[in-house]
């Protein structure tokens, strides 16, 4: 039995982005309850040389929209990555979820063999088949940034656990 590229991508991105949205809601509520300026969490990072929470969320949604769009062979929406508040991060997630909802299985299934080129014309150029792009590059990158966003908030005292990370499935 095979699994479709659509089933391995869009529902997974949606589940995790909805869970990330819920985690951000809990972080904002935690900040209010503890009288902590919300920007402290939005700008928090695990290590000085790592991106802050807001950038982790931006990159996670960039991978969700980019991977799904490239597999569907449609233009990748471009957003300015200027979010600095919980509300702005939530709006970004909402935009990307709407984009994911616009992609159908017919647009992605059967694209295992298409060529996807990342960073074309640069020394970092990589060529993938559609299946390899999703499974060995896109999903691992996406999960890294979702996980790091979760870890930043957990490290800073937000009471979240594995169920929060996983969301509804």
Integer count of domains: 1
Helix fraction by DSSP (H/I, runs of at least 4): 55-70%
Strand order of the largest sheet: 1-2
- DSSP strand count: 2
Organism: Pseudomonas gingeri
Protein name: DUF1993 domain-containing protein
InterPro entries: DinB/YfiT-like (IPR034660), DUF1993 (IPR018531)
Pfam family, one: DUF1993
Task: Write the topology of this structure.
Elements: H1 10-33, H2 38-42, H3 53-72, H4 86-101, H5 105-108, E1 115-118, E2 126-129, H6 130-155, H7 162-166
Antiparallel strand pairs: 1-2
Search tags:
169 residues, mainly alpha, Four Helix Bundle (Hemerythrin (Met), subunit A), 5% strand
Short note summarizing the structure:
The protein has 169 residues and is mostly helical.
Describe this structure in words.
- Strand 1 and strand 2 (126-129) form a beta hairpin.
- The chain has one domain (10-166): dinb family like domain (Four Helix Bundle (Hemerythrin (Met), subunit A), Up-down Bundle), CATH 1.20.120.
- With 169 residues, the protein is mainly alpha-helical.
- Helix content is 59%, strand content 5%.
- Helix 1 (10-33) packs parallel to helix 6 and helix 3 runs parallel beside helix 4 (86-101).
- This is DUF1993 domain-containing protein.
- Pfam families: DUF1993.
């Amino acid at each position: 039995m095979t699994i479709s590229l659509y089933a391995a991508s869009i529902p997974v991105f949606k589940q995790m982005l909805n869970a990330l949205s819920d985690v951000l809601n809990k972080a904002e509520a935690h900040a209010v309850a503890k009288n902590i300026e919300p920007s402290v969490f939005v700008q928090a990072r695990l290590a000085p040389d790592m991106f802050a929470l807001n950038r982790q969320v931006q990159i996670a949604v960039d991978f969700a929209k980019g991977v799904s769009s490239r597999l569907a062979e449609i233009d990748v929406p471009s957003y300015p990555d200027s979010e600095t508040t919980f509300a702005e991060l939530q709006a970004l997630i909402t935009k990307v979820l709407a984009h994911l909802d616009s992609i159908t299985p017919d647009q992605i299934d059967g694209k295992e063999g298409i060529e996807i080129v990342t960073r074309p014309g640069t020394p970092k150029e990589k060529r993938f088949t559609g299946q390899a792009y999703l499974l060995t590059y896109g999903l691992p990158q996406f999960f890294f940034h979702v996980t790091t966003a979760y870890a930043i908030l957990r490290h800073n005292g937000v009471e979240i656990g594995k169920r929060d990370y996983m969301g509804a499935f």
